[in-house]
Amino acid sequence: MADTGRVLSLGLPAGSMQESTIELFRRAGWPLSTSRRSYEPSTGDPELMARFIRAQEMARYVEHGVFDCGLTGYDWILETEADVIELSDLAYAKQGAGTCRWVVVVPEESEIRTLEQLAGKRVATELVGVTRREFAARGINAEVEFSWGATEAKLRGMVDAVVDITETGISLRANRLRIVATLMSTTTRFIANKAAYEDPWKRRKMEGIALLLEGALRAEGKVGLKMNVPRSALDGVIGRLPALQNPTVSSLSDPDWVAIETIIDEAIVRTIIPELKAAGASGIIEYPLNKVIP
Question: Are strands 69-73 and 48-53 parallel, antiparallel or unpaired?
């Protein structure tokens, strides 16, 4: 994008999401450069000023115009009840692409098996507002208190249950904890301040960022393949290609040959390349992808 002299302010999630966010922006075309002591990374884009803050605070800062836009979890938008515009649903987390869940957790030995059994019990969580509203909607009168951290540790003699976030559930099982119920699922959202979104230049800039971030996520786990194929073997080769869309087939200088280009899941490359070779393809090239824009 050309340098217009204008600047878009962007909030990025600090903490556990920071490294995966840096990697996502790198693949989208913004190589963020930062240091351990800096909260304001260089973006390599004179039109984009970024700052890392806690995801829990992001939606409010965007709502109030401190940032024009930002990335935060859908859970924190609901928790703060922030009035913002959601530009994009970006399904990535600290361990890669995916969705996280806020779950009600008890020790394995607990007698609590249902949410209703938490009536009159003490529950600790960082997501207090959402938890209270969910419990009230189910008619469960539990004492929900805010947790400043180390929430799981409070299950040993301090509270009856906790509501905590999990991506894989591995940590919960390792600590001999049991999930009673899932309160909500959440993904990272790209959000915008309403006034900033009404500015045509800022809107175009934000929509361009969203497009490239989505493209970077879409490219995860996929690679491109190029190959040359005799026309006589074309149908057999194409029949072995599970393409994102129909593969591109181009004529070569030799009328008896064509070139094929396609996108496939990286997980099947080791299986499909020998099959393509056996079907008649040659000059097969595999290459990585940073973005896939439909």
Answer: unpaired
* Residue recorded with tokens 């200088």: 253
Residues of the chain with CATH 3.30.70.120: 222-288
Please give the single-letter amino acid code of residue 120. Answer: G
CATH topology of domain 222-288: Alpha-Beta Plaits (3.30.70)
- The predicted-structure confidence for 174-232, as pLDDT tens digits, reads as follows 889 999 999 999 999 999 999 999 999 999 999 999 999 999 999 999 999 999 999 99
Name which residue leads in pLDDT, 149 or 224: 224
Q: CATH 3.40.190.10 region(s) of the chain?
A: 8-97+188-218, 100-186
**Both tokens of residue 84?**
């913002």
Looking at residues 115-134, what average pLDDT do you find? 97
For the stretch 92-125, what's the b/e string if a residue is b when 16 or more beta carbons lie within 10 angstroms of its beta carbon? bbeeeeeebbbbbbbbeeeebeebebbeebebbb
Whether 37 shows a pLDDT value over 70: the answer reads no
Pull the structure tokens for residue 67: 């940032």
Going by C-alpha positions, the residue among 56, 42, 38, 37 that lies closest to residue 10 is 42
